[in-house]
Amino acid sequence: MSIQFDAVYGTRKDREMHLDIYQPSSSINHRTAVLILHGGGWAAGDRKLMQSRCEALASRGFTTLAVEYRFLGEIPWPGQLHDVKTAIRWTRTHASELDIDPNKLVLQGHSAGAHLSLMAAGTFGKPDFDPDFASAPPAGPISAVVAYYPPTRLTADRAMPDISAGPPDPEAFRAIRGADGSIPAAMLLGPAGTAEEAASASPINYVTGVFPPTIILHGTADMLVAHAGSLSFFEKLQAAQVPSELHLFSGVNHEFDITPSLTEVSTTVVASFLNRYVVDPGGFAEEVARTNPLAAMTA
Question: Is CATH 3.40.50.1820 the classification given to domain 2-298?
Answer without folding.
Answer: yes
